[in-house]
Amino acid sequence: MRDIKMLLAVLVCSILFNAAPASAHRPFIADDPETDEELSVLTPAIQASAIPTVPPAITGEPVVDSPRNLLAWPQDVQNSVPDLTEPTANRVNDLHARISDCDFAVSTAGNYHMALRELWYNVFLPNYTSDLGLKNWFYITSPPITLDQIKNSIVTIGNVSLTCRPQVAVGPLAFINQLKAAGYTTGSAAPVFHSRGNVLLVKKGNPKHIRSVWDLRRPNVRLVTPNPVTEKSTFDNYTQSLYFIAANDVQNAPDGWDADRLFNSIFNNTGMGGDFDRDDDRGRHDGVQPWNKWLIGTKIHHREVTWSVAYGRADVGVLFYHLALNAVKNFPELFEIVPLGGTADDPQPLPGNKISSHYAIRIQGSWTPVQQTAADRFISALGSNEFTTILTNNGLTR
């Protein structure tokens, strides 16, 4: 009798699950700024008990991959925080400036820079500000720096210093909540976009034949990620995606491998075992030993990861789909995308692949009428139909 009751309970659970509407099985993306901004594509709850909930702690030492043999010229402003100078893209040595009187300024997370540039020049400036007479403006597309930017009244790139307080900030929810807690914001946060998950970026032709996260276990495959200190939020998004994709894909795991061993082999210099490639002698030539599979940049991963894959020491990088798409569009001769679900043209994130969301919020300040109007109109432009089209064309979604 007891066995019959247990069987009936299993059947009821199965019927309830299969009878649920299709939407109940889809990944949930929240527009409510009070919810988590990064959500995984979930497996059905009936399977969830078999999925690990936390990746192993990271104890390995990454290798910084950046251009070598560059002269470190002194900067006009020393020890500025934040300082966005980095060697692969942001070096300004022969323009010396200090800008302190701005009609409008925006401080934003930079991973959607390609979409923001299109909005700014093609929509916002001509259609939203033509009557305001904006002359001095800037926007920053970097890791979220608004807290330090406001606190220290400066941001530096090479020998250019900007001291204008931004009127608007854009970034992931945790960053927005930090600004709120510091008392820097006014009004509520407005949702701007959601990502379409993460992918792998490889050299054109995919010379290492990387097809899935399981190929990252190979000793002759080096992975480059964001810096875990300067870009912690994105680093966590990417590394957790790799881990939970593997945890949801145990049926395709190579013999003896699981998500923990994969994660440790990349980030903790362990788990290689007998798979060590004795013919991999790159350490003799580029200073990185074969067991150092994990490379990082310094501070701006949407510039540095692509450089590392193209010209540095990485074989593969993990990126938001929209960043990888932008790299392929701009440098089709250098890169191609390995999707983590779906195709390179139509990603369908695998279970465990994290979705990132960004929000915009106004910053408190003693603004002029022009500055206040520009901020209000920029928020409107971010929510416009024109920007929805731009986002779609650049691999993002509402």
3D structure, described in words:
The chain contains twelve helices and 15 strands. With 398 residues, it is of the alpha/beta class. Strands 1, 4, 5, 8, 9 and 15 form a six-stranded mixed β-sheet that branches. A six-stranded mixed β-sheet has the order 2-12-11-13-10-14. It has a three-stranded mixed β-sheet with strand order 3-7-6. A hairpin with a 2-residue loop joins strand 6 (155-157) and strand 7. The radius of gyration is 23 Å and the shape is globular. It starts with a helix and ends in a 5-residue tail after the last helix.
* Number of strand segments: 15
Unreliable runs: 1-37, 42-49, 271-285
Structural class: alpha/beta
Determine the mean pLDDT.
85
N- to C-terminal distance: 52 Å
**Can you tell me the overall shape?**
globular
Rg (C-alpha, Å): 23 Å
For the biggest sheet, the summary is: 6 strands, mixed
- In helices, the fraction of residues equals 25-40%
Number of helices: 12
Strand content: 15-25%
Multimeric status of the protein: single chain
Question: What is the helix/strand order?
Answer: HEHEEEHEHEEEHEEEHHHEHEHEEHH
